[in-house]
Amino acid sequence: MLPTMKLTTALAGFKGTLIRPDDAGYEDARRIWNGAIDRRPALIARCEAEEDAALALAYAQAEAVPVAVRGGGHNVSGSALCEAGVVIDFSMLRRVEVDPERRTARVQPGALWGDFDAATQAHGLAAPAGIVTHTGVAGLTVGGGFGWLSRRWGLTSDNLLSVRMLLADGSEVRAAEDENEDLFWAVRGGGGNFGVVTEFEFQLHPLGTTVLAGPLIYRADQAREVLQHYREFIAGAPDELGVYLNLRTAPPLDWVPEHLRGIDALLVIPCWCGDLDEGEAILRPLRAFGPPVADLVQRKRYTAQQSMFDAGVPHHWGYYWKSHYLPPLSDGAIDVLLERSWRKSSPASYTLIFHLGGAIARLPEDSSAASGRDAAHAININAAWPEGGPRHPDINWCRDYFGAMEPHATGGVYVNFLHNDEGEARVRAAYGPRYERLARIKARYDPDNVFKSNQNIRPIR
Ligand SMILES: Cc1cc2nc3c(=O)[nH]c(=O)nc-3n(C[C@H](O)[C@H](O)[C@H](O)COP(=O)(O)OP(=O)(O)OC[C@H]3O[C@@H](n4cnc5c(N)ncnc54)[C@H](O)[C@@H]3O)c2cc1C
């Protein structure tokens, strides 16, 4: 327990709410998206102003307790919370300010992608975001980030123009291509290792508000042929098209036809973000193949596509993930998908395959700390159980499946899909040849490793 007297004095200017274990709101305040995580911070410092973060950080350092930073609270590993330490909680700071002339957005560190999309789409603008609207902008961006628009406009972090950051020594700096360049390089993919971002500035793009998108649903017994066709189809896909795969029990969500709910299904989900007539022509062979048992591809609002998966991954269920980057799907990888995807016990567990390449791959590998430029896909094997709590049989399903896929993977992994039990070798695998440079930048900006509630990069001198 942190001493109350000291706390009141040290945090005298704090404008937000200080929540301690004895306070009424504590149990709620320490809940995050993943209901399998159970950590008890000594203090949750819920910031109302950006300056609050500096006070909370100084206090944690004076008391020599751990510190964690919470954006959207969605990291599966639970890194938004630390045991017996101070959580700098940004959940009240969600403003997104758009400058439609310059096509830029200034974003506070607690904003969710739903906030971002609402503000930018009001001007027909967008930037590559995560594909679930209740995920945080902050954690996703500092880990790299990809979504429906990434093949056209790159990783989320490729669209950052600048950040304002609070560093471990309490100083506040701006980082951009022309200022603190090494820090800017590192924070675009290197996670929360280098400091606390208090404001993001993004470049936006003229998307308009409509995309051609939605799932094609196939039965599991069609999956081999469909996956083989998918592989050929996407080999020549233009940048405006991303096609994701979701192997799962068809969920009881509004958009799934009632008679298909509960079947073992493969969802092939295109999202075309270019000229809509051209998209209709390009998608024709994909939609004709099979044929699917349901074709739900339509012209729809981008924001509707963005929220399509929201209800399938609600807050406070138990979740456990494992992930690889993949090259184009090999026959061996397809065999593993067919053998493993549906052999789970929870209907909520699923496999998601992101389609990368395009603009992501066109930047040099060392243009920032972010990974994935050499991968065709990221696969996320997601054990999910509505009852919450730390244990579920699908955790073993997930681990075994991950092991079976390993020979068909690139050896790399997206840092934001790592769990908290993976170890240093996997963090190194996430950064590959960029790890040493990151560790040296870490030594410059955070030599004492104050920011270690993350996929940690240890400082080397
Ligand atoms: C349902 C769901 C859908 C997802 N979809 C996608 C997707 O489409 N694409 C994708 O790329 N990823 C996706 N992810 C993964 C996502 O990128 C990570 O979970 C990410 O960490 C979430 O960010 P957050 O702010 O919500 O997380 P938090 O748990 O709040 O933060 C995670 C970590 O980020 C760092 N961090 C947070 N805020 C700051 C800050 N202000 N300054 C510095 N560091 C900070 C800290 O290290 C913190 O521990 C998804 C995750 C979930 C749960």
Mean pLDDT, rounded to whole units? Answer: 97
Query: How would you sum up the major sheet?
Result: 9 strands, antiparallel
Count of helical stretches = 15
Radius of gyration: 22 Å
Hetero groups in this structure are:
flavin-adenine dinucleotide
Low-confidence stretches: none
Structural classification: alpha+beta
- Morphology: globular
State the end-to-end distance: 35 Å
**How much helicity do the residues have?**
25-40%
The amount of beta strand, in percent, is: 15-25%
Query: How many strand segments?
Result: 18
Descriptive overview:
The protein has helices spanning 4-10, 26-29, 50-62, 113-121, 137-143, 150-153, 181-187, 223-235, 276-288, 302-306, 331-340, 359-362, 394-405, 424-431, 435-445; strands spanning 17-19, 43-46, 67-70, 86-89, 96-99, 104-107, 160-166, 172-176, 196-203, 210-213, 216-219, 241-249, 264-272, 294-295, 298-301, 318-326, 350-355, 377-385. By secondary structure, it is an alpha+beta fold. Strands 10, 11, 12, 13, 14, 15, 16, 17 and 18 form a 9-stranded antiparallel β-sheet that branches. Helix 11 (331-340) packs antiparallel against helix 13. Bound molecules: flavin-adenine dinucleotide.
